[in-house]
Each structure stands twice: as structure tokens, then as C-alpha cells.
Description:
Layout lengths: L1 E8 L11 E7 L5 H22 L8 H33 L2 E6 L10
Antiparallel strand pairs: 1-2, 2-3
Helix pairs in contact: 1-2
Amino acid sequence: MVSEDSNITGNSADGAAAGAPERRITVRRAPRFVPFMVLGGLLGIVVAAFVAFGLPADPAFDAGAVFGFFTVAFAAGGVILGCIVALFLDRLSFRRSEHAIVEAVAEDEPGDD
């Protein structure tokens, strides 16, 4: 992920784009939230299956109904936990961020080879 800190006007080192503005940017690797949410939801479904079918059941309730109830509860909890993990990793990525200066480069003319 790239974020712009501020604009500073200056000249490039080689003089190719004299007077062109420079930008100071921060470069970091940020996690994508959707895969963490999907993984959390899938893990919640697996835990719901274990609770519904692996543990001793109450004869008053059908195992499918118990699985459906726990799927909703545990999948939602898994999505929330996935978001929390992604937020934690996002905060850690700020520590590993690097600062850079981007300079404008003059474009070649269409007829130049």
C-alpha cells in the first residue's frame, strides 16, 4: 500500500525533469481483509460442525438444526476474529514501512527510438 506524506518541490538529481515536483511516499505491505474474513468464517463452520456432530447431542433437537444454529453463531464470530487478526497485521505493517521519494521522469517522444 502506498500513502502520500506531502508534496515537496525540487529538482531531480540528473536534471531530466528540472523543476518537476517530488513526492515523499510511504510504501508498506498491507494485508487484504477479505481473505482473513473468509478464512475466519470457514473455520467457524468447521467448529460448528464439530460441536453439532462431534459432541453428545440432546435428543430434543435435530443435529441439522443444531448445526445451522451454531454455523451462524460461529461463522459470524470467525469473521470478526479474522478482521481482528487482519487489523493487528495491518498495524504491524506500519513498523516495516519504508519511505521513498518519487521523482518525475520526462517521457520519450513517440518518434524517438
